[in-house]
Amino acid sequence: MQSPVSHKILGQQFWLTIDRTMFWEEEKALVVSDLHFGKTGHFRKSGIAVPASLYKEDLQRLIVQIQYFQPRELIIVGDMFHSSANKELELFLRWRSDLSGIGIRLVRGNHDILREDWYASAGIQLSQQTLSRQQFHFVHDITDQLAKRNGFIKYEKGVKAYFFSGHIHPGIRIDGTGRQSLYFPCFYFGKKYAVLPAFSRFTGTAAIYPESEDQVFAIVNQELIQLQ
Amino acid sequence: MLLKQSKGYQVIISWFESRGLRPFEFQEQTWMHIIQCDSGLVNAPTGCGKTFSVFLGALIDFINEYPLDYQKKSRNHLRLLWITPLRALAKDIGRAMKEVIEELGMQWQVGIRNGDTEINERQKQNRQMPEVLIITPESLHLLLAQKNYPEIFKWVKILAVDEWHELLGSKRGVQVELAVSRIANILETDAPYQFSLWGISATIGNLEQARDVLVAPIMNKIKKPTVIVRAKIDKRIEIESVIPDEIEKYPWAGHLGLKLIHKVIPIIQKSRTTLIFINTRGMSERWYQEILNVAPELAGAVALHHGSIDLELRQWVEEALHKGILKAVVCTASLDLGVDFRPVETVIQVGSPKGVARFLQRAGRSGHQPGELSKIFFLPTHSLELVEAAALKTAMKQNFIESREPMILCFDVLIQYLGTLAIGEGFYPDPIFNEIASTWCFREIKKEEWQQVLHFITEGGEALQQYDEYRKIEIINGLYKINSRRIAMRHRLHIGTIVSDSMMKVKFLSGGYVGVIEEYFISRLNPGDVFTLAGRTLEFIMIKDMTAIVKKSTAKKSIVPSWNGGRMPLSANLGLMLRKKFNEVHHLLENNPRQREDIDLELQVLKPLFELQDSLSHIPKENELLIEQIETGDGFHLFVYPFEGRLVHEAMAALLAFRISRIIPISFSFAMNDYGFELLSDQPVPVDDSNVYELFSEEGLSADIQRSVNSAEMARRKFRDVAVIGGLIFQGYPGEYKKTRHLQSSAGLLFNVFSEYDPHNLLLRQAYHEVMEQQMEEVRLRNMLERISRSEIILRFPERLTPFCFPLKVDSMREDLSSEKLEDRVKKMQQQLSRDLEKKRVK
After folding, report:
1. Are B766 and B410 in contact, with CB atoms under 8 Å apart?
2. Which of A161, A165, B15, B327 is the most core-located residue (most Cβ within 10 A)?
């Protein structure tokens, strides 16, 4: 597997992985987005037979990432769970109790509709809108922030802020000559905010159209490729 | 019983006489077979009384059963089940049937059941089934999802499948096969076996097979041969080509036929009503605009009709066609089928009709009464297409009409059908397996495959044991049943096999509905872009609530949407006829005066073009394959002309590119149209007399195809239909979008998920199978290679582009073949892009 790719923001060290996670070295935090746990179960309960092994592998991939980086905490920028509670979440709870040493911070996403006491009992600390660490802020849907006038948190002069978000499941299209066109999920880093790829393999993507000064890392099979 | 002595026959004959008519021979033949309880196929063109062949047979049969009180007897249960593919036809057929019943003073009821039937009408039918029920395949399956459905069907004496040639070869045809297999078996257990099954079909190449497919489920019961009744009715069709004034100046390609528009206006003006058939929706938009530009006086008397136009507007156009208030309608395949428009006197076909059957069908849209002349003009979109007109004429003379291949092992339709049965009465697997295996579609189903299907619908395939809650079909004491009301309701909403592209409504900012358009087209537009829809020039503003908001635009230039559907390849029959026509071209060039008289006008007109082709290169005879190698500024071109249709050429191009790249490392881009294909490379292509037969050999075909074609990408596109039919994609309740949001997923995503986590899934395998069968037309590809192995391959090295290769260079679709790793391709494309950027900066 490709080793993590270094990416620096406001002097801090971040590591991007092909498994759609981001490790923040200074804070020892593993940041992921859009896990959609329980999605296969939700579909199956409704008679749509998607293979459930996908969910198991999603969990295993996350464990591998945790074992690799040994983070202090897991920051999830929303959509940790796909829908209402189902049996698949019991598998998550069992997994959670094995890793009780790690704090889990969840910024509530539009899919996170479980009862608040459920999160508490699963050892997940819930933030309704924003979670902040130093000058970095974690939100679920960045467009909510953009829509609000002066939505970005203000600092005293000279202090910059940066946002991490999910929700969009960003994808990037690359066009070549002769009408060639390829499409991949990606990490997106703009001037003021980043959009992380969806962690779950049971997620689609929405195309983003970056500006030339933005940075984009495409997830191509087993390799992260910086496109710009 | 002798037909002519029967009471029923006498009643019907006197009805004919009272109207001053006599039955056609084929009608009487059908009646005779019906009273003998035979089954089979009636072959008759539309508009020639085919409805009355089977329908009056059913009446005769009933009158013979109740000779004394046939006029009084009512509430006779469902006796005649009439399956029709088109909702629009149901009303007309029903009306005609009711008229006869009334005039005979009988009490029979005629019911219609399809998506348009009101709920109270349906309930009325459920309480008391009419004697005749006209139904679509989808609604028939919905009936099978009802409790007590055996009660409805067990009295059926005659099951008729109208327009069987339209259903055969599609998944709707498979639905009919499955429904027949069920109904035929209800009869056996509950009533004495007196059942006849009739298909009604226009002429196709494989009529016998069409009959065999239909009657397959009853063959082991009836124990006597089935029949085909052929109507001997000659339909006179006149074909005239629209010929450019100076063939030397007529463009070789690239103008959609619009250069000939000035010749179309007088044709429109001379006829009462003209239908102008255009192959694609995009082109039809252009033609509609151009007609109005050239002949503004026709404004208001010309209309546009295609699948993306608002339904109400389309219905208005159809109504106006009936009334005869339109001079012309520019249309696509959207007007191929359906009720007859009497005022239509003339049809114009723009560009290749791609097949003999389709051309005849379109021609038949004019002069739509028995005995009347059908007049069709053929307008070429490039010079060589005139050869097609000549080929069509000959094919028509020889009645050389395409076959419809029945579909095999459609597991998606089977999975849906089992769900349907599980909602209604539930089913026991063993008897249902026997029924299914009696159909043509599933006669080769293996026991393991059946087990897999059962496993899929009950266990949901791959599961996480104790954490699983899969719920669809449950097994209770051996009975397979759906008990959840929500799941049952969702299943009912999804019964059917017609999967449309996801469409988006287009509305004006000020309100007002324009039509619908494929979502993927809109997704590529930026605000401010101007496009054409329904003959209007529109500026895209934004997407809101799943609707594209637009305003009128006066911009001169606009993007014409390219729609996905409807790009049919040239049929094998027409391709063969085309190759034969080139034999005649040789007579033409030899200036043999005796044979010249027999040569089609279209070929004679093209003489200068053929002379040029002949002097630069060669004109291939029927038993020859022409290959041209030309060097231009773009690189080294290899043109091959098998005349086998675009899809076969696409597969062949990939195959040839792959085989050449085994000789030396080389990369190609390739292009194809219905006549041939092109390989383009930046280095000379090593094809010569020493290796050319080997390159076209049949040997190792399957393996080479697997390696040369990106079948995963093709299967991904096919998978959408399969997944929707097989119940993996839930499209939401009507008007209840939000509640099911958490169940939304795209076919592309599911394709990835299954490929990675459940690669042996039946539906996934079916998508690949459909790619090979339909997309690649593997059988046709094999036949082509076999033909080439018996042909002479002619290699030529022309100095410059030839008339043959020109349309390929200009109008074709382009693809590329790459054996490089995906990661490398991305990097290469990036480098290319940055080089382009640098170039721009330098400038």
Report:
1. yes
2. A165
**Contact state of B471 with A44 under an 8 Å Cβ cutoff:** yes
Of A39, A55, A176, which has the smallest distance from its Cβ to B464's Cβ? A55
Contact B120, B197 (CB under 8 A): no
B668 to chain A: nearest residue by CA?
Answer: A178
Q: How many residues belong to chain A?
A: 228
Of A88, A207, A225, the CB nearest to B467: A88
**Residue B63 pLDDT more than 90?**
yes
Alpha-carbon span B528 to B512, nearest angstrom: 19
Q: Which of B467, B669, B728 is opposite residue A48, by nearest beta carbon?
A: B728
Angle in degrees, CA B290, B294, B295, rounded to 5: 115
Q: Give me the number of domains chain A comprises.
A: 1
- Count the Cβ atoms, other than its own, within 10 Å of residue B834: 11
Which of B35-44, B251-260, B531-540, B747-756 is predicted with the least confidence, judged by mean pLDDT? B251-260
Which of A113-117, B106-110, B322-326 tops mean pLDDT? B106-110
Q: Determine whether domain B3-230 maps to CATH 3.30.1330.60.
A: no
- For residue B810, the distance in angstroms to the closest alpha carbon of chain A comes to 14
Q: What CATH number did the domain enclosing A154 receive? A: 3.60.21
Q: Is the pLDDT of residue B597 over 50?
A: yes
CATH 1.10.3370.10 assigned to domain B237-397? The reply is no
Q: What distance in Å separates the CA atoms of residue A22 and residue A27, rounded to the nearest whole number?
A: 12
Between A and B, how many residue pairs show a Cβ–Cβ distance under 8 A?
A: 133
What average pLDDT does the segment B288-298 reach? 92
Q: HEC states along B307-342?
A: CCECHHHHHHHHHHHHHCCCCEEEECHHHCCCCCCC
Residue B440's contacts (CB-CB under 8 Å, 6 or more residues apart) are B177, B212, B213, B216, B406, B408
- CA–CA distance from B487 to each of A48, A70, B449 (Å)? 10, 44, 24
Question: Does the beta carbon of A91 lie under 8 angstroms from any beta carbon of chain B?
Answer: yes
Domain that holds residue A83: 5-226
Distance CA B342, CA B317 (A): 14
